[in-house]
Design goal:
Strand order of the largest sheet of chain A: 8-10-7-11-9-12-13
CATH class of the largest domain in chain A: Alpha Beta
CATH topology of the largest domain in chain A: Phosphoribosyl-aminoimidazole Synthetase, Chain A, domain 2
Order of helices and strands of chain A: HHEEEHEHEEEHEHEHEHEEE
Oligomer: homodimer
Number of strands of chain A: 13
Number of helices of chain A: 8
């Protein structure tokens, strides 16, 4: 059997089942970042992301933007846990024949994003590689009361999303701003029951929340904020790498959130959490409800 | 200018100079692991290593050994700081056409090494890639008093190395045991002034200690423990990926160390630290002293 026949999520499930964890681990594989025992009031967070030339970027892309993306997608993971990013280690695989300017551009982009979000670049590994590969691992911290997992969604939670989704391939996947200040505002001012960043596509990532929370959901086509870059509504639901936040909070406070939201970044209430028995539905503009199969970007 | 014209260490120096760090960082780029503020008595350590198919291993190598190596070289880095490994995140780039058994073998090897040394596998990233790439980032902890940097070597320190060096390409680079228990014994029982693991070759890695400590050294051909796998003495000095520990401690306690050393792992006193003004010398079996240029494994 080949890897792509099994699929990414099934493969991860299989790996995950084999792992046993010590009591120091609050949450291991299966959220945007790992949650580790740290101090009386805080947890430590740990996440990692790998970008491969030809899959997540092309050599024709601007090196600085590729570096920015490598750092930003990790910061987005820490944001999705309600936390603050701290320390990063950078591994870069580079062809020896690569132009030095391109290699330095990658680091420049990484550094700019790190500086913008208060991340210290504390180490790394530089190796030879046929194709460019960048891996960043990032630690973070989160106050225990602010931790937001995928697994906390409750019935009648309102489902929100930041920004616009779809068509990120045209540029946004390389040049996005992780929603760190938005996430910190949310956890500091509301009881956010669940949160995730959109890397696999809205349906897949909301699907992760539903699976981990054992819940269903109803979302409404006419409320989903679709980017002008998206080919159409259906693809916007499945396009990956938007790096927006999807989060849920108790329905009764949704109004207050919209009222006091202080940022230019748009937020949209796109639906409600319901019981898993009811399932996952999309209500079309026509009023017709369709059952959703949460498929997203396939990594293999 | 191409990357390989500049060389790995010059490139890292250049990157390093551009990085500014906050006061939370005790030691950033330039040691086996980063050292971060943590608790009253301890520092946190953070390291990362990337292995690329065709550079650090071949697809014909046993998957489990490749996974073991990926985990073990990170544990070796934490050991070289005097610390204990804790939490790992694993990024793996895999071709979709890869046999599922091979992919599972990689994780099996990673998990075995993690279990052996008390490391929790807490997260990761799985992506598509033309060649297999494995990146592991590993945290650790070290008591403040036990931290061993590259920069602490002092004049008249005895220079020791564990095990045998050279010819690791024949198997050991895939199937070695990181010297964690040896390192912990050393830091718990002696004032170890400097330590590094041999990944770039003895001369290059002892060279890192000398550079960071601003010292020189004299080592003796007849005391260097050369592996049976090594082609010859001169190549053994430069072969990479031995993953033995090189460390220095005050000359007067060298005798006590050899007396109370409790492990089967060999240790050899191979020379002495001297002033940087004197330089870095190898004394041949003939008694002739040669000036050393610390070159090691070239990664580009």
């Amino acid at each position: 059997m080949r890897l792509k026949d099994l699929g990414e999520f099934n493969f991860i499930d299989r790996i995950n089942k084999a792992v046993k964890l010590s009591g120091r681990v609050i949450k291991g594989i299966g959220d945007d970042a790992a949650v580790l025992r740290y101090s009386k009031d805080k947890y430590q967070l740990l996440t990692t992301d790998m970008l491969v030339e030809g899959k997540h970027f092309y050599k024709s892309d601007k090196a600085e933007l590729v570096g920015k993306k490598a750092m930003s997608c990790n910061i987005s993971d820490i944001a999705a846990m309600g936390g603050v990013p701290k320390f990063a280690v950078i591994s870069v695989g580079l062809p020896g024949s690569l132009d030095l300017k391109y290699a330095e551009g990658l680091y420049k982009g990484i550094k700019k994003a790190a500086d913008m979000f208060g991340v210290d670049l504390v180490g790394g590994d530089t190796v030879g590689s046929g194709k460019i590969v960048i891996n960043i691992a990032l630690t973070g911290e989160v106050e225990k009361k602010n931790l937001t997992l995928r697994s906390g969604a409750k019935e009648n939670d309102a489902i929100f999303i930041t920004g616009y989704i779809g068509g990120s391939i045209k540029l946004k996947h390389l040049n996005f701003t992780p929603r760190l200040k938005e996430a910190r505002f949310l956890v500091n001012n509301f009881k956010i029951n669940s949160m995730i960043d959109v890397s696999d596509g809205l349906l897949a990532d909301l699907g992760h929340i539903l699976k981990e929370s054992n819940k269903g959901a109803i979302i409404y086509e006419n409320r989903v904020p679709v980017s002008k870059s998206a080919s159409n509504f259906n693809s916007a639901l499945r396009d990956g790498e938007d790096f927006e936040l999807v989060f849920t909070l108790p329905g009764p406070v949704a109004g207050r959130l919209k009222k006091i939201w202080p940022f230019k970044t748009k937020i949209s209430e796109i639906g409600r959490i319901c019981s898993s028995r009811k399932g996952f539905f999309l209500v079309r503009k026509t009023g017709k409800a369709e059952k959703i199969k949460p498929a997203g970007f396939a990594h293999f």
